[in-house]
Amino acid sequence: MKALLVCEFREGKLLNSSYELLAFADRLGAEKAFLLVGNAAEAPKVDGKLYLAQVDSYGEYNPDQHKALVMAAVAKENPDYVIFLHSSYGWDLAPRVAVALKAGQVSEIVNLVDGKFEVSLCNGKLRRTVAPQAGPAVLTIQAGAFNFAGEPQGTPQVEAIEVASASGIEFLGYEQAEKGDVDLTKAEIIVSAGRGVGKKENVAIIANLAKAFGGELGASRPVVDAGWVEHSHQVGTTGQTVSPKLYVACGISGAIQHLAGMKKSDFIVAINKDKDAPIGEIADVLVVADVLQFAPVLAARLG
Amino acid sequence: MKILVCIKQIPDMESRFKVNGTGDWYDEADLAYRMNEYDEYGVEQAVQLKEQLGNDPDVTVLSIGSDRVGEALKKALAMGCDRAVHVQDADSGRKSPYQIASVIAAFAKDKGFDLIFTGMQSQDRGSAQVGVTVAELLGRTCATTLVDFACADGVVTGKRELEGGMKGVVKFALPALVTCQLGLNIPRYPTLPNIMKAKKKEFVVVPVAELLAAEPMTVTEKLYAPTKKGGGIVLEGDMADMADRLVGILKDKTAVLR
């Protein structure tokens, strides 16, 4: 069994998440080859064949050309699996490769269960195993689901790869995240507000609880999207990744993207009306209550 | 200008899900349904573009599923789409993303849509495949995960959301397909007059058999509830009592409360 692992490169650097692909391929027991649109100085420290396309020629985001490069490497390797991280790069590129390969795609694999691909659905409330049809398949793996242990080491056997292809998309550059007034990554205690707080006015109740704990206010994505809390407070894949000593999730159901940003906290308390909410799966303590009623009682008890 | 918006109706994620009798999907009975949140941003963006261009664009909204998806289509009409296409399929939940995309592509291929909007993923299955696959099947330019969209003189400038709050700025000419990320805009609530007006709009029903030729490419083997990790303490009951117990636990198990 052979796997082609498509590494990620951003702002001139190999992304460390690329090694998660390696960890997954090892779980699969696959022989590995790699593809990177980057440069030799930032090549992954791995053993095996590395197809290297120069980022200066193809750019960091250019899906049409990157697809052509993946297909060129596929033509040389004939892999059983082409594997991406389920990221803004991977979920954008993987279906393009799947269509070109006439292959089935399994998205955001969270685990291997008896050799089968397990994925999560309905906000983590269900799981299923998915089988691709015979022939090559395209896979994306959930960020953080397959951790690479240890220091990467190895020297790839580099083969330059080039394609001639046009693209309809022009990449104009990056826009950095807004810098806010708070650095949650340094906080020891974070009390976060989720959709369960109901409306903007109620965020104050959670902010009061954060104050009673002597901690910072965090928030889940829907709360930030709705404009109730500033983006600098957002915890999760598209916000900050935090690992405080105590994380209190208030009215947060526990979408995968949020969990990815806080599951490494030392101690997790969830306050939620829904006893079955996925946040309960990783919480050390689940308080089954309406957070708007419970938070003031708890704040008073702490104060 | 012709615009297509593809929407999915999904169960409320707060629901309690049960595995169906054949063990390969969830039981669709007794669930409350709503429009996939990501798709609401697609509907809103299409309607905003229609307003921006002096009402010129003609906006078609399409959904695949059983009779109940008519509710989601009616909401999209009330938000401002011009016509609805309901691809009738009682078993759409178990179709693979590739099959769903192929049905949309088969519908769209000879209609001359300049712009197609889809959500970046569905809230229930979350494969993030359908939009991109439609674009590839149609040979269209495609940009995913947009949190910012502007269109002028047939050129789109958009911002893709990347990890950690960073964005990537892209530019491309129509025809194209874009997939919408949460926060792209603020989807409007349909007003009562617009709900009444929507009842008079064109509503086309197409049997899925007329559009479906593709093989699934992937199949769900087994669906199940995740095994409970357990170990976590569950507190229920009186508020003051729970607060006392929680503070006790935190003093005992963490170093943050003295």
Condensed summary:
Chain A has helices spanning 18-28, 55-58, 63-77, 90-101, 203-213, 221-225, 256-262, 291-302; strands at 2-6, 9-10, 13-14, 31-38, 48-54, 81-85, 104-113, 116-121, 126-132, 137-141, 156-160, 169-175, 189-193, 216-219, 246-250, 268-272, 285-288. Chain A has 303 residues and is of the alpha/beta class.
Detailed description of the structure:
The complex is a heterodimer of chains A (303) and B (258). With 303 residues, chain A is α/β, with parallel strands linked by helices. Chain A folds into two domains: 2-160, Rossmann fold (3-Layer(aba) Sandwich), CATH 3.40.50.620; 184-302, Rossmann fold, CATH 3.40.50. In chain A, 25% of the residues lie in helices and 30% in strands. In chain A, the strands form three sheets. Chain A has a nine-stranded mixed sheet with strand order 9-8-7-10-6-1-4-5-11, sandwiched between helices. In chain A, strands 14-13-15-16-17 form a five-stranded parallel sheet. Chain A has a two-stranded antiparallel sheet with strand order 2-3. In chain A, helix 5 (203-213) links the parallel strand 13 and strand 14 (216-219). The longest helix of chain A is centred in the N-terminal third of the chain and has 15 residues, at 63-77. The termini of chain A are far apart. By secondary structure, chain B is α/β, with parallel strands linked by helices. Chain B has a single domain (2-210), classed as HUPs (Rossmann fold), CATH 3.40.50. Helices cover 27% and strands 30% of the residues of chain B. In chain B, the strands form two sheets. A nine-stranded mixed sheet of chain B has the order 9-8-7-10-6-1-4-5-11, sandwiched between helices. In chain B, strands 2-3 form a two-stranded antiparallel sheet. In chain B, helix 2 crosses helix 5. Classes of the chains: A alpha/beta (303), B alpha/beta (258). Chains A and B meet through helix 4, strand 7, strand 8, strand 9 and strand 12 of A and helix 4, strand 7, strand 8, strand 9 and strand 12 of B. Strand 12 (169-175) of chain A pairs antiparallel with strand 9 of chain B, so a sheet runs across the interface.
